Amino acid sequence: MLHCRNLNTPSPLLKFGAGVNSLTSLVFKNSHNSLGFYSENHDRVLKSSCLIDLTRSQPLVGGGHCDRREESSISSSGEKMSVRCNTGSHSHNRISIEKEDGSGKTTTTKGSGKIKGNVVLMKKNVLDFNDFNASFLDRVHELFGQRVSLQLVSAVNGDPGNGMRGKLGKEAYLEDWITTISPLTAGDSAFDVNFDWDEKIGVPGAFIIQNYHHSEFYLKTLTLDNVPGHGRIHFVCNSWVYPSDKYHSPRIFFANKTYLPSETPLSLRKYREEELANLRGNGTGERQEWDRIYDYDYYNDLGNPDKGAKYARPVLGGSPQYPYPRRGRTGRKRTDTDRNTETRLNLALSLNIYAPRDERFGHLKLADFLAYALKSIGQFLKPEIEDLFNSTPNEFDSIDDVFKLYEGGVDVPEGLLKSVRDNIPAEMLKEIFRTDGERFLKFPVPQVIKENKTAWDTDEEFAREMLAGINPVMIHRLQEFPPRSKLDPKVYGDHTSKITKNYIEHNLDGLSVDEAIRNNKVFILDHHDMLIPFLRRINATNTKIYATRTIIFLQKDGTLKPLAIELSLPHPGGDHFGCISKVYTPADKGVDGSLWQLAKAYVNVNDSGYHQLISHWLKTHAAIEPFVIATNRQLSVVHPINKLLHPHFRDTMNLNAVARQILINAGGALEATVFPGRYCMEMTSASYKEWTFPGQALPVDLIKRGVAVEDENSPHGLRLLIDDYPFAVDGLEIWSAIKTWVKDYCSLYYKTDKMVQEDYELQSWWKELREEGHGDKKDEPWWPEMQTREDLIETCTIIIWIASALHAAINFGQYPYGGFPPNRPSMSRRFIPEEDTPEYNELKTDPEKALLKTITGQLLSVLGISLVEILSRHSSDEVYLGERDTPEWTTDKEAEKAFEKFGNKLREIELKIEKMNKDQKLKNRVGPVKMPYTLLYPSSEGGLTGKGIPNSVSI
Ligand SMILES: [Fe+2]
């Protein structure tokens, strides 16, 4: 064996083993001045063929450099042999051997040798929870011995016999298992692989891998150290490789180069197209675990009509009545009862629901754990437990009683405990519900009551959360008074607000209502129109809820003050009679104070439902999925826009698939904990009718809501009408940083608009996204046409914004704000008590109890808190905005530089946020609850931090 790693290391004497033709041993000597091969005794003729054999079987490894042309020659027995190391770095293998036969005739053989590669993979199936602690190492050996083969694919030389696809090298196999390489993450293994190389291969641009082993492994990277004439080539793979018989064609991976389709080397083009075709599949059949196919389908898998009408749900998507973004297709068979509905997986198999293999949580331990946690929560939703929830008489008696949730003192009925114990493994119980199975749980103290236990209940905090809470995307500026409805009067009658000037005029710092509106001081949180069409049906269930409107005044100190709340119900005589409304105004004492508190609770119930279903599920999780699918189907992994967007799609399809199993399905966790119950998803479909893609851009959204106006002289080109609007202030900083990064990056690859127009992958991507992914919106006039660089930049900025910052702002405050149910109740179970009833008397004598009897009950609060706690956690290996999971995501230095600039900008923004949060003039940033606004603070550590912007919708 050759033991050398670097041929330029000055002159160690190296020995080859015996057995190569006539050589018994060979001394290789190297220095900057000489390079030569000598036979040990110098008395034998060295045959060139012998040397070539030698170099083939004994790789010349290492990453050294030959700094100059070096040449040495030896003579022996009248024959002269010259060994040359050609110019350039990493060129040890470009060996020319000239042999003179003594008559002056010279023969030359050149251009062959070995390329050493290093493969990093993970064999362990981390999805197997029971295997978390199992030893990986004892199974590594299974990959030895010609079980895994790799072949290089030439990026420069096409094979005329194979449609000019790049020439293939000889198969090479995983060899020594390297135990010393670092840094390796736990569970990873590294292997040597030595490729034969000759000039026909030239520079490899891809490799093909075949797994002849019986189980899959997760291939992370291949690195070629010393490609002749090129140097190091790195392949970022991050993909599960199943046994070869699972695939129609061998798996191919491309080097981390970036090419527009038209600039792809000819020899890689067909491979590029074929790989995309593989990922698109043929649209038929049930998807299997190992499949990598990205395809579209309707949301036709939420209901289970075979189980009874109670579990039937409309198909969302594909009809004008129920438009919806598409989900990833799974292809399971249809139900017997309704041929348009797909059968569901058994609850116990929830984590097996199909998502393209590399979209699954293979790389994450904690996310796997979270998925298990979600599944465990799903166990709560079995019918027998469901009944228990509905029938349990347990109530919180007082707000102090609620605090016991964080102190570990809430009792639960034995029936529920038994069911929980039977269904959830003990270690999960401990981790998720913090219980030993006897007394139920102890939750972490939510931030909103950490510093001050009572400030959540103030009017100022109630209004502040419209600017800095978890649903800061709903508040509008009021531009006409009284507020009007957009509901069709022919169907719904007159829904103009009943809030008259008399209710509010005394509270406007001396301004008249008209003046206050003209001065941009009046705002509204309006949940009326969204709810009215559903209210009769919702109120026929256990839920009892109003449609609400809240009028808010912007005070001189920059804080908001609620002025009036209108609670409306459909007219009992029929929709065309309009609605019945009651108006409540602020009061802090007596029964009026209690009524005002209840009115605020109904607003919060409306808002928390809107938040969970529409701001969160529909506008981030569901809206992004079609982009994930279209990108994987139409943009090659070597396409610059794929490289730009890919980090922002991490885990989304898998998480959404699990959500369809246990969160948003009929009888799932959302229906159980969010007030519209079985109408939850139908309501999101109604809201999608109003969804526009360009409207998701933060500046467009702010202007549309009237909370900002265009202003060339302001930073980011617009001026906020509520200066201290933490979500908007921080959001605009992040939005602009993303946009600058996207512009810098796209400009590297698209020098002209024509290049955008002529990029056929890009055009197919955009066409498919509009016509398939968001197919129910395909005829909308507002889609960017993707004809200019500006179209491309705005589009990518919106996608990244939704997946990263918008989702973070909406998602990670769920526990900090909603972990204390009285602050963000998600259900209401009764209406405001009528006068002269026992309930009304209780409102007078024990308003806390009356409030707690109205909002979410105790057991569902526990379920809801468990759920939002899980959804608010960062996994320990989360990748945040401005980070990539590998530094080698590109080889383009300019792209790297632009990305670094983006990271620096985000760090600057963090400092700004810290500074603003300490500025006492900016009262909305901390509020009476003393909770600094950090939801758009880019970085975070793992866990329940209330800050940090992950790249993707990953939880
Ligand atoms: Fe989320």
Question: What does this entry show, briefly?
Answer:
The protein is of the alpha+beta class and 955 residues long.
Structure description:
This protein is an alpha+beta fold and about 950 residues long. Among the domains are: about 115-280, Sandwich (Lipoxygenase-1); about 470-610, Roll (Nuclear Transport Factor 2, Chain: A). About 35% of the residues lie in helices and about 15% in strands. It is built from 27 helices and 25 strands. The strands form 6 sheets. Strands 8, 9, 10, 11, 12, 13, 14, 15 and 16 form a 9-stranded antiparallel sheet that branches. The longest helix has about 45 residues, at about 590-635. The two termini are about 50 Å apart. The model is unreliable at about 1-110 and about 125-140 (pLDDT under 50).
List the helices and strands and how they pair.
Layout: E1 14-15, E2 26-30, E3 35-39, H1 48-57, E4 70-76, E5 79-85, E6 95-100, E7 106-110, E8 112-122, E9 148-159, E10 165-168, E11 172-178, E12 188-198, E13 204-211, E14 217-227, E15 231-241, E16 251-254, H2 266-280, E17 296-297, E18 327-328, H3 365-379, H4 383-391, H5 399-403, H6 414-423, H7 426-433, H8 459-468, E19 476-477, H9 489-492, H10 501-504, H11 513-518, E20 522-526, H12 528-539, E21 547-554, E22 560-570, E23 579-584, H13 590-634, H14 640-645, H15 652-662, H16 669-673, H17 680-688, H18 698-704, E24 708-710, E25 718-720, H19 726-749, H20 753-758, H21 760-773, H22 789-811, H23 814-818, H24 838-845, H25 847-854, H26 858-871, H27 893-918
Antiparallel strand pairs: 1-2, 2-3, 4-5, 5-6, 6-7, 8-12, 8-14, 9-10, 9-11, 9-13, 11-12, 13-16, 14-15, 17-18, 19-20, 20-21, 21-22, 22-23, 24-25
Helix pairs in contact: 3-26, 13-17, 13-21, 13-22, 13-25, 19-22, 19-27, 24-25
Bound molecules: fe (ii) ion (FE2).
Fe (ii) ion (FE2) is lined by residues 616, 621, 807, 811, 871, 953, 955.
EC number: 1.13.11.-
GO molecular function, one term: oxidoreductase activity, acting on single donors with incorporation of molecular oxygen, incorporation of two atoms of oxygen
Pathway: Lipid metabolism; oxylipin biosynthesis
